[in-house]
Predict the 3D structure of the following.
Amino acid sequence: MNELRPKNRAYQGYYKRDVPREDERLTHTGPGTPMGELMRRYWQPVCLAAQLKDLPLALLIMGEELVAFRDGAGRVGVLHRHCAHRGASLEFGRIAERGIRCCYHGWHYDIDGTILETPGEPPGSSIKHNACQGAYPAREAHGLVFAYFGPPEAVPEFPDYDTFHLPGVELVPYSIKHGCNWLQVHENLMDPLHAVFLHSRMGAVQLTEAWGEMPVTEWLELGDRVCYVASRRIGDNVWVRFNEVGTPNFGQVGGFWEDGLAETFFQRVGATRWTVPNDDRASTIFGLRHFSGELEAKGIGNKALVGVESLDIYGQTGDRSYDEMQRNTGDWEAEVSQRPIAIHALEHRGTTDRGVVLLRNHLARALKAPPAPVAAQGGIVPTYTSNTVVRVPLKPDTDDRAVLQAIGRQVSDIIVAGNSLAPGERAARIAEQLQGLIGPGAAS
Amino acid sequence: MNELRPKNRAYQGYYKRDVPREDERLTHTGPGTPMGELMRRYWQPVCLAAQLKDLPLALLIMGEELVAFRDGAGRVGVLHRHCAHRGASLEFGRIAERGIRCCYHGWHYDIDGTILETPGEPPGSSIKHNACQGAYPAREAHGLVFAYFGPPEAVPEFPDYDTFHLPGVELVPYSIKHGCNWLQVHENLMDPLHAVFLHSRMGAVQLTEAWGEMPVTEWLELGDRVCYVASRRIGDNVWVRFNEVGTPNFGQVGGFWEDGLAETFFQRVGATRWTVPNDDRASTIFGLRHFSGELEAKGIGNKALVGVESLDIYGQTGDRSYDEMQRNTGDWEAEVSQRPIAIHALEHRGTTDRGVVLLRNHLARALKAPPAPVAAQGGIVPTYTSNTVVRVPLKPDTDDRAVLQAIGRQVSDIIVAGNSLAPGERAARIAEQLQGLIGPGAAS
Amino acid sequence: MNELRPKNRAYQGYYKRDVPREDERLTHTGPGTPMGELMRRYWQPVCLAAQLKDLPLALLIMGEELVAFRDGAGRVGVLHRHCAHRGASLEFGRIAERGIRCCYHGWHYDIDGTILETPGEPPGSSIKHNACQGAYPAREAHGLVFAYFGPPEAVPEFPDYDTFHLPGVELVPYSIKHGCNWLQVHENLMDPLHAVFLHSRMGAVQLTEAWGEMPVTEWLELGDRVCYVASRRIGDNVWVRFNEVGTPNFGQVGGFWEDGLAETFFQRVGATRWTVPNDDRASTIFGLRHFSGELEAKGIGNKALVGVESLDIYGQTGDRSYDEMQRNTGDWEAEVSQRPIAIHALEHRGTTDRGVVLLRNHLARALKAPPAPVAAQGGIVPTYTSNTVVRVPLKPDTDDRAVLQAIGRQVSDIIVAGNSLAPGERAARIAEQLQGLIGPGAAS
């Protein structure tokens, strides 16, 4: 029945079965690896603040075994998991008013890893001055706990993004484990085309119908950001979606429920997230879901579903049945099923993968010299991610793809140019300019 | 109590504890290995046809990750599991009227791996002409799906064995996973002596009492077949069982319920099977149970028990309790418990293991030059496997072992000589000759 | 909030994250390793006698796959697990009146591994004279099964410790698996300080209040024993606890429920135990709990809880909930959580770890030349482990730590000097001398 065809490209399994090694440089993040060292120059989320209650929490981050806890004074510690004394795990330690004590012999550590007491040792013992527990600077922000894993003499600023300060927006933290390398999870953010297929055309509409429209897409590299601008025709409107990722594993996603039916200008993000390696074959998205009356006007989102291993967006977790994953495939399995570590050498990338290529190249360059971050204004770092919908009816005898491209460029130019505005007025000024966009030359 | 004895061979554990490496040449079957390449020159079953319904099926065969499916037109595809585009698993793909689409970006593959569409790419994209998905020729036969994993320019004939064409015989497919290397499962077929012990004398009678009689056994190597002829004294009768395996992992087993009490001539097989490596430490028997009024006259077999991970023969599956496996041990655990890969260098083989040795030597030679298959007659390949029971009463003052041996040789000579007969008459002619066997010189 | 402090020892995680290799010499015990060979010169427990009933028992000891069984004559066999014929596991064998038969082809082995029959082979076969099954001498003692894994020409005496012969003492066998290397389990016995913290001060009182008192501790190396003598002030009394381990993995523990409130002299052990490697990352404590009216006067111990994976002492097993392990941490998780194999190079050992250091040095020396065992008296090997409580009220203006040290030394001197006494009178004479200890010079 299935005869061999004479075509060159039929039944080539035998000649294509070899599986080369992964791109270690971009995917491996253990201590001492190039990407691992890059990631260690940035604050990384490690758990939700709400997970730190009366017991220590065992963590695995970039191959390092850790324990996190909040001490009696409310301060957060992130320490190496194994006690510097004899190696018992501090996940079995006793949280103290200040720091934590090991269960085994009571060695008492402050949250910075300095030894407060070695109670079994004689009073004059100098051990506590000559030893310490490995520790990392930690801080809480927006319901997440962040730690800094790099050289202690080079702690970076904690980036305070503009989207953390929007009036009326509530940030709800979440985390979702993925049984695969961090990069294939992260780069999904620079792949707007998958939304057309995975989230719409391949089966159930997972977000809104509008996502199934094929966009005209542009990709931008702007300092420490890699971005896409995807412009879609929705009836008489054009929906311009601007998404960004930041070196090395930061990203934002525009509002999820946009349907393109009503005009909107510089509507901000649905989620801010970091994709953090647990080890080379597992990673966790730590994120902040943004809720506001404007973003959730359609009543689809559900704050109660956002938390540890849970999100109110379809297909983001690995706890659905295999049958459901096969019938209505989500991001989680599309990413995880690329193998424990996706093999770039086996890919056939097209024009639609330009964002992924741009991101990988950006990261490869960052290994040599991390890009300068977008400059903060008044201490607040501007970001771009947003949805904009403008009324631009379809014109007969016009190349509408060119129209979409031109509008996308105008929208993104306005947004990017807003970087230098003062934080207090930037969003409003950008929206204002976007509203004024539709003039004679709008679609030229 | 347990004193050390002065004997040389007592308590030698300390000197016998080293575990050498397995025989890689015969046991390893990944891409590029000698045995793997040999197996890839033959059609191999990969699943049951009934498993291909509305969803793709993930498979692992000889270390290769695959997906099998039946498209809307009813054609079967066996493709590399990871999409050629960006590696998402096609087990999450959408089966189309023609071929399958990847869930992630909708790339559309025909069953031969050629790309029908890359819908996210611009109309003029040439990707689909320059890339393809790894695919293997596949076909359905008798309720099993077979694929060919070798060089596409050398697809072999699909062997059409005589036992697929017997009137009144229904072939019922099954598959059973084994947590061990393929060879120790396969070579059990060339080990008739284990039936005396494992299936009879060591505990419960798993088949019939007759199996517990010690046979006189001969081993034959005939072209691409390795065979045994086991002759047993059952009262006034002699039961001659002829079993065969074929290069590299094909085999047939005579009827299971023979009790030797009634004459029968060239009664054909109880099961046809292939032992297919999943990887080097796991394998699956894919088989066809043969049912007919004659074979199942005793009413023991049960068609309803034959399928995926199920067979109507005791001890063939791994889902029994450990206690039951210990008390009434079956083939499954006798094979799997030889270690994940049995260590030939630790064996002490005797005369009863000649079939196993012959098979291994046959396979080792086949690695250098595959043997010519037994020639098809009218497109149909003759096979030997059968039970024959002839009346030859025990004679006083005669070496009955010599009688058994002589009868076994006569029976097998007649059956093998039947190779050149036309398919339509071969079985009847062989039976006729066997019936005429019992003459003055029968046991001389 | 958590600013980097200017101190040298704060936030040093980045500089302390490397995990060196384990100390292979002391921790690895597979065939041919230095420690493995040392352990193979001593009788090792492998299971409870009660586990050998009507079915064989599969075991893993020092990386060797084994099977243990009791034959129909009541004799115990410890054989290599895989049949010398074709490798099927003897855990699926049939126990015979004499020895065991393999399920697959019925090869029949005596408990010493000699082949009694190869029933499928012809009568004249010489296989049974030229082959054998790997076997180890085995014996039962006190409800445990012991085997000797060393060269068969050098079987050592089975040590008959004095504590096996105490009147009124019942020995109840138990075994507890640990998911970590043997050494970190074993050396807990030479670490009396952990009892102050883990068992008392860090949370619930797991034994008695008295354990929470900080002892004055001395460490002794005496032939094949490494010991500690821990002396505690309990009101007007001094409690001297003497514990010992023996080369390489033997140990004893004094009575568990001592509260120091009543005088007692040379009260013997609560448990005798051996920490046996399963492989390098798992080990099993095989032990004998001692029960007597004297030892269990408080009614805390519970014989019914002692057995396979069960003990009547808190925190000794791994089957408690993670929450309970975090809140009331026991020895099991304190030991197992030191990593699968504790990394000595990362430890910061203090004066309180002198016992652990002494033990490791003792073992390292034993690898070169095993120490001479303490000489048996009348066939019985003296041991030291015991609790002694003497009335020595606290004196004003006295350095009580010096008093405790002096008393500890006097007690241990008396006990050690008792080595040469005849077994029948030793315990009474030692107790007598200890009772006479409190004189004018007692605490000088």
